Amino acid sequence: MRVVVDSNAGFCFGVVKAISKAEEELKQGKGLLCLGDIVHNNAEVSRLRTLGLEVIDHERYRTLSDTKVLIRAHGEPPQTYEQAKEHNISLVDATCPIVLALQKNVRNGYEEMRRVGGQVLIYGKHGHAEVIGLNGQTDNTAIIISGVEDLEAIDYRRPVRLYSQTTQSRDEYNALAEKIASRMISDDFKVYDTVCRRVANRAAELKDFAASVDLLLFVSGENSSNGQYLFEYCRKVQPNTRFVSDVSQIDDDWLKDISTVGITGATSTPRWLMEEVAGRIVES
Ligand code: SF4
């Protein structure tokens, strides 16, 4: 049996940058607090924990003062920065530059919409960290669109600016934009192409890889929205695709009559974890 690890898989540059910032700080041996999971992958979070990274939630963040906190690649709303100033918290800001640019874009759209009585829409997952950071740019007034059921909240007579969370599917985003366009009464409707290129291109790269194997193991954290999206995408190309978060979830029955196993993952899946999965398959 041949086992191939997808050469294009692994962390996106935003996550690589956040992790290397964390590792740089941790080298000083004083530990580091991180606001939320640095990456949506439990195995990588556990590895960093052993180096001294402590993940905290926003409730704990609000109680802190005179300390240092890492902001992960997903970004944060303005309130987080205001609290840091008020409580002498030094921020190690690892927000991905693409997310930072999107936050600025959303803020500009919000200011424009405020002047003309329009609305900002964000296509993304309710409660996702990046979406919370983006909504913060609009003083939490944006309409979050997760699915068609959310379209009822839009007033189609008023101007609209539409943005997407960076890790959404581009095809689904385009379909949503068309649906909104067909309902618009106001002619002031702008759609911004804000899906991360890395995510959009991953889907195309994955297509060939998924089609070239008999069994595809998709390695990802269950809480990664990019992972869920890419897994579903792979399953359409290669029905024999299995989702695993770590080696313990591999079922040897999957390997019967298989000649080539492919191993890939999300933009939040560490390469070492995919290699570990490959090693487990080779041993079986
Ligand atoms: S997926 Fe794209 S936008 Fe998100 S952290 Fe990675 S590089 Fe940045």
Q: Could you characterize the architecture of this molecule?
A:
This protein is α/β, with parallel strands linked by helices. It has ten helices and twelve strands. Strands 1-12-10-11 form a four-stranded parallel beta sheet, with helices on both faces. The longest helix has 20 residues. The termini are close together. The mean pLDDT is 95.
Uncertain segments of ≥5 residues (pLDDT<50)? none
Strand content: 15-25%
Structural class: alpha/beta
Strand order of the largest sheet: 1-12-10-11
Termini Cα gap? 10 Å
CATH superfamily of the largest domain: 4-hydroxy-3-methylbut-2-enyl diphosphate reductase, catalytic domain
CATH C-level class of the largest domain is Alpha Beta
What's the Cα radius of gyration?
21 Å
Number of domains: 3
The number of helical segments is 10
Form type: flat
Range of helix content: 40-55%
- What is the number of beta strands? 12
List ligands, each type once. Answer: iron/sulfur cluster
The assigned CATH architecture of the largest domain is 3-Layer(aba) Sandwich
Order of H and E elements? EHEHEHEHEHEHEEHEHEHEEH
State the major sheet. 4 strands, parallel
What is the fold-level CATH name, i.e. the topology of the largest domain? Cobalt-precorrin-4 Transmethylase, domain 1
Average pLDDT works out at 95
